[in-house]
TrEMBL record:
It comes from the Bacteria. Pfam families: Aminotran_4. This is 4-amino-4-deoxychorismate lyase. GO terms for molecular function: catalytic activity.
């Protein structure tokens, strides 16, 4: 049976980007299983149970519903360098429990801290984040992500990010790259593009 996950930032007793996570979960359930009943995260985890420190609320869901909820303190990984890895066949349209394709690519990481996945010469994502590149005035996120993340969509909706086709050959046109996901905000992890190897 296919299983999918949501990972959500919790801080000060608040669930961040709740609407975006619920929309993605319910869209996945509809596209994969044809389910149209709307699941709500707050039906299985009440705000009174949420910690004050920055934590990762994680759960698995499938055709039957939400289960295996955990909430653990979050510590951000230190990322100082990225290795370009190429795979023209990789797909990861849903946030799946099965990360085997991503794990295979991680084996090419070498002495870098993380990978930046290239598909058909286009930038996509790292193994666990979306990315944005800064040209000195504006942040741009690739229009070809493996997984359109909840934070990514939120930033696009707010106009903080612009979407753009970004090729490997375009990287030198930018100054910085930022990694972000539900747990890390844009600008929290920023590297100079020279650290993309």
């Amino acid at each position: 049976m296919c299983q999918f996950i949501e990972t959500i930032r919790v801080k000060d007793g608040r669930i961040f980007n709740l609407t975006y996570h619920e929309e993605r979960m319910n869209r996945t359930r509809k596209e994969v299983w044809g389910k149209t009943d709307w699941l709500k995260i707050t039906d299985v985890w009440s705000p009174e149970e949420l910690p004050l420190e920055c934590s990762k609320l994680r759960f698995v869901y499938d055709e039957a519903g939400i289960h295996d909820l955990t909430c653990t303190p979050y510590t951000r990984k230190k990322i100082l360098s990225l290795r370009l890895v190429y795979d023209n066949n990789i797909t990861y349209p849903y946030k799946s429990v099965d990360r085997s394709m991503l794990n295979e690519l991680k084996k090419q990481q070498g002495d870098c801290d993380e990978i930046l996945i290239i598909r058909d010469n286009h930038l996509t994502d790292t193994s666990y984040t979306n990315v944005a590149l800064y040209d000195g005035q504006q942040w741009f996120t690739p229009s070809t992500p493996l997984l359109p993340g909840t934070m990514r969509q939120s930033l696009l909706d707010k106009g903080i990010l612009q979407e753009r086709k970004i090729l490997v050959s375009d990287i030198p046109q930018y100054q910085q790259i930022s990694l972000f996901n539900a747990m890390m905000e844009l600008g929290e992890v920023v590297l100079p593009v020279k650290n993309i190897l």
